[in-house]
Specification:
Length: 222
Amino acid sequence: MHLFIVEGLHMADELRRKFGETHTYDFCPAAAADLLTRLGAADVAFDLRDWPELHYEKPRQPLFYNTTARSLAQLFHNEVPPFGPVFGFCGLPTLIDRKLLEVSLFKPEDSTKLAEVCTALGSDYRIVQDRVGLVTPRVICMIINEACYTLQEGTASIKDIDLGMKLGTNYPHGPFAWANTIGVSRVYETLENLYLDTHDERYKVCPLLKTMYLRNESFELG
């Protein structure tokens, strides 16, 4: 398959590991003048922008949108898109190269097409609810947020928290290293939108994390 990927160059290695080298890839800047022409040559498209825009002109390809911070329903305002099928997926760095592709549906009848596309991509998948944060991003960002509360209270250092999490849970990264890799801004925006969507106190952003976001800083891992 020929994969067209908008703003995905920062995840090129991860995407190639996930889907393999039997496919071809076109990593396209969102501002590219020939975006629609390049889209027309693709078999499937992925929009990896943090805030994907839906201004394509009725492409025939299945389109996957990064819906970590906004659901498909929010993107389309509950209107039927004039093209399709469309899918939401977890497009955060480190969370694509996994056995299962985490996907949401805008229309239930698109599940058959999703199965066909994922088979062609060579990936297993799981359908999750079309909600902000999907499943894995919600859990990981909540863990990072709790780690920020622990650091803010002076209970433990960044190094100790990261090491304790890796040893205690066998996660591939500690929460602060994970936040840096995903991007502090993406973690903040996911939590902020989760809180706006649910008003659940579990997702209320830690002041320390908000400060890091506002300063456009990463955590010093030491």
